[in-house]
Amino acid sequence: MPVRLNITMDKELYLRLKRELPHKRISAFIEQAVRRGLAPDRKVLDAAYRAAGKEKWREKVAAEWTATETEDWPA
User: Fold this and answer.
1) How far apart (Å, rounded) are the C-alpha atoms in residues 68 and 10?
2) How far apart are CA 60 and CA 25, in angstroms?
């Protein structure tokens, strides 16, 4: 559910937002910027990791890299 909020920002930045974005898109743009700026939600990350763990192609990639984990590296 959307909530209304009042924010304060530099006037030049505000004018640039008005100049570069369609009138009805400023709120959406600010919301997306805030989402990108925050750390990902733990539940979302956990779900993504579980989904990635079920992807079969990842097993092949992991197996290809196993040799590099056991090679003798020069001292």
Assistant:
1) 51
2) 43
